[in-house]
Design the sequence.
DNA sequence: CTTATTTAAGATAATTTTGTCCGAATAGCA
DNA sequence: TGCTATTCGGACAAAATTATCTTAAATAAG
């Protein structure tokens, strides 16, 4: 459904949010180990998210990544996905056709558009806060 | 959403079905040109579909691909997708986690499972006949 | 100011997906 | 039989994605 990069992005953001709620800044190393992802690859993804104003990075000793507490609820999964995978999900059609004539859609159009818009809505309505706090019970799931 | 191979597979099957309804057997060349796909790559995909009993291939002069008229309605998109992409869509979770504890699902589980099962249902309920005949008006869409 | 620590950035490598090429096998036809 | 059109099947190549390595830049602390 999403690219590997995007999955890491979501998991990492979730972990950072969880720690930021307790005022902990976390290092790249810690994040990668916590979500079981390749360190350097994760670095690029976090960098991208930082450039997209989704999280903040701090260099130097005691540096790392964090998210402003008050923003955790306004950051939606859709923002993360868009920053990493772009808007491919929203645009292309299921069959990968280049463009589409809305006046004479193929027989699948209605159905696909419905499902895709459900997904979109879900991503837009689900905040990082929701995901992070929703799993405080079984935190280990981020490792899988 | 689907792999490129899968997209070609759906488009090709649709075209073959459309022609088979009129008792025309179509060649690889014709198919590839009709759906705008790389010839050799398309060959592999069609071959795979043939091995999965989704379509029939005939070698030699006047050979090509076809689908038994009476089967066109019982072949569902799900069959094609499964033959090419396997069952990845149905198994993995949105976050790409290896396994999942249904007893203590992450906060996204309900939502994702719902959307995914909608997609699954749609693929299982949509037959090649439906797709092929549904677009007889604007056939050129397969080129895009 | 120096050093240790940590992210930034770019080059490089491995893997997967997508795409190409070519000889072999098959079938129709003269 | 021999010729030709076509799929089959495997080896090969290119492109995209994922992952690693190396060096630079920033910054906190002594
Ligand atoms: S009309 Fe059909 S081909 Fe076009 S965007 Fe919709 S589903 Fe895709
Ligand atoms: S519980 Fe969460 S992590 Fe597990 S399969 Fe469901 S969505 Fe994925």
Sequence:
């Amino acid at each position: 459904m999403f690219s590997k990069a995007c999955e890491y992005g979501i998991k990492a953001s979730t972990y950072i949010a969880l720690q930021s709620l307790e005022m902990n800044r976390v290092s790249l190393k810690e994040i990668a180990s916590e979500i079981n992802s390749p360190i350097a690859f994760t670095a690029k993804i976090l960098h991208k998210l930082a450039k997209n104003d989704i999280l903040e990075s701090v260099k130097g000793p005691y540096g790392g990544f964090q998210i402003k507490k008050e923003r955790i609820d306004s950051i939606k999964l859709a923002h993360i996905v868009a920053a990493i995978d772009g808007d491919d999900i929203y645009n292309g059609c299921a069959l990968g056709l280049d463009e589409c004539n809305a006046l004479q859609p193929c027989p699948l159009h209605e159905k696909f558009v419905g499902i895709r818009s459900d997904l979109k809505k879900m991503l837009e309505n689900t905040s990082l806060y929701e995901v992070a706090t929703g799993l405080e019970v079984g935190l280990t799931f981020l490792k899988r």
Observations:
- The longest strand of chain B covers residues 56-58.
